[in-house]
Amino acid sequence: MRISYNKLWKLLIDKNMNKKDLKAAAGISSASVAKLGKCENITTDVLLKICVALNVHLEDILETIDD
């Protein structure tokens, strides 16, 4: 099982935001954005910052996918 952030990328498109905008709005590092882009592990602190910045819940930005 793995985590996919496709929901996050679709949400950014809907909000007319790009990764740079997300970085600024959530106050996260470029490294964190890069990890999200590669579907790598990221801390829950970063995920919560994104949720607060976008006014969404965790299930709105990620999903689990069976391998």
Supply the CATH architecture: Orthogonal Bundle
Q: Tally the helices: what do you get? A: 4
Give the distance, in angstroms, between the N- and C-terminal Cα atoms: 5 Å
Please count the beta strands (DSSP E, at least 2 residues each): 2
List the helices and strands in order. EHHHHE
Uncertain ranges: none
**Percentage of β-strand residues:** 5-15%
What is the helix fraction of residues, given as a range?
40-55%
Domain HTH cro/C1-type: 41-61
GO molecular function, one term: DNA binding
Pfam families: HTH_26 (PF13443)
Protein name: Helix-turn-helix transcriptional regulator
What does this structure look like?
The chain is 54% helix and 9% strand. By secondary structure, it is mainly alpha-helical. It has one domain: Orthogonal Bundle (434 Repressor (Amino-terminal Domain)). Strands 1-2 form a two-stranded antiparallel ribbon. The chain is globular, with a radius of gyration of 11 Å. The model has no long low-confidence stretch (mean pLDDT 95). It comes from Mediterraneibacter hominis. Residues 41-61 form the HTH cro/C1-type domain. This is Helix-turn-helix transcriptional regulator. InterPro entries: Cro/C1-type_HTH, Lambda_DNA-bd_dom_sf.
